[in-house]
Amino acid sequence: MRANLTYFIKSGGNRYESMSLGERTQVLMIDDEPDMLEVTKAFLEGGGLFEVDTSISAVDALRIKDLERFDAIVCDYQMPEMDGIEFLKELRAQDIRVPFILFTGKSREDVAIKALNAGADFYLKKGSDVKAMYAELSNFIDYAVARFAATTAIEHNLNRFQKLLESTPELVEVVDSNHIIRYVNSAVMRFFGRKPEEVVGTKIQTSLSEPENLDGILNSLLEGKLEEAKVLVKARHIDGSIRLLDATITRFLNGRFGAELMVKAREATTEQLVGSQNLFGTSPTTPS
């Protein structure tokens, strides 16, 4: 599997690179016992899947330039000057998100809980069965690196998707299963003349009105009875006029924040404005 998969890693700030799983995983091992460092390095590198750098203390490790070049960090808990959990907290405070495994001789439950709460991916106790212990450590590293890579790729794609939404002239809103607005693009802000925090978190019906069955349309989409709906809706423009919008609402499964619907709208055409006199009884303002 390692030779056939490709995943994304984050390096150098916001730069993303594609990394083949056929390459060796870069691991930083930190322990105040030189013998432990030597043995761990030998076991991990023995299979040809890992390349291990070592550090004798957490304080020394913090002096290493570009810690984000490592795919994973394996760290002892009890060390002089700074313990493993303090080191982890410092990494996260610096927004260094490299997968972290606390590898310690301590089997206390409170240490494991503290490590996981601080952002550790795994907690592994050193044991007497060396072969089984290093096999488990190898699996933990592989899993943590793959999970981080998948998460990073998703975030990267979400950022690209959001940039696309920001560049479109259409009004775009993402709505959750309770009809609550979870995202709006800059076009929405320009149209309503409101700040994002004034819109996000409110019901979509507070910004869009008509048709009267809008709730039913949204629910039918959420329940999977409809895949897409095209509707004419009214909205109050920043200039105070009521504008008619041509809106397309689609199911947006697995959306960010659990959102499930995307509303994309634009100013209605002249023909739609004329037709709206019969639909709504009054004619919305024609944009100047």
Describe the structure.
The protein is of the alpha/beta class. The chain folds into two domains: 6-162, Response regulator (Rossmann fold), CATH 3.40.50.2300; 168-280, Beta-Lactamase (2-Layer Sandwich). Helix content is 37%, strand content 25%. The chain has nine helices and twelve strands. It has helices at 34-46, 58-62, 84-93, 109-117, 130-167, 186-192, 196-199, 214-222, 270-280, and strands at residues 6-11, 15-20, 25-30, 50-55, 72-75, 100-104, 122-125, 171-175, 181-184, 228-236, 242-251, 261-267. The chain has a five-stranded parallel β-sheet, sandwiched between helices. A five-stranded antiparallel β-sheet has the order 9-8-12-11-10. A hairpin with a 3-residue loop joins strand 1 (6-11) and strand 2 (15-20). The protein starts with 5 loop residues before the first strand and ends in an 8-residue tail after the last helix.
Question: What is this structure, in a nutshell?
Answer:
This protein is of the alpha/beta class and 288 residues long. The chain has two domains: 6-162, 3-Layer(aba) Sandwich (Rossmann fold); 168-280, PAS domain (Beta-Lactamase, 2-Layer Sandwich), CATH 3.30.450.
Which key features would you list for this structure?
288 residues; Rossmann fold; 2 domains; five-stranded parallel beta sheet; 9 helices; disordered N terminus; disordered C terminus
